[in-house]
Amino acid sequence: MSYESIKDPKEVKCRKKHGCAWCGEKINIGDKAVSRAYKFEGSFLSDYLHPECWGALLDTDSLYLEDGFTEGDQERGRPLDQDR
Ligand SMILES: [Zn+2]
Question: d(Cα 16, Cα 42) in Å, to the nearest integer?
Fold first, then answer.
């Protein structure tokens, strides 16, 4: 896998609706979200996450993120754990 951050993730107020990349739930207009831009397997990508989902991602051991994670497949605000 090759993950490369393009710019530092930052907290933004959404001007459009987005789906959270972590839990798949909606992020509504005016809600806070963490915006990130990155390169994965050679493609430029960007997505939005709930602040608590971003925290969950940071709390997840990088071992589990090596192959990336399935968008929308995680529980909101919950790190991936070893039982999965
Ligand atoms: Zn989320």
Answer: 26
Q: How far is the CA of 18 from the centre of ligand 1 (A)?
A: 10
Centre of ligand 1 from the C-alpha of residue 20, in Å: 5
What does pTM read for this prediction? 0.85
**What pLDDT, in 10s, does the model give residues 11-33?**
999 999 999 999 999 999 999 99
- 28-40 pLDDT, tens digit per residue, is 999 999 999 999 8
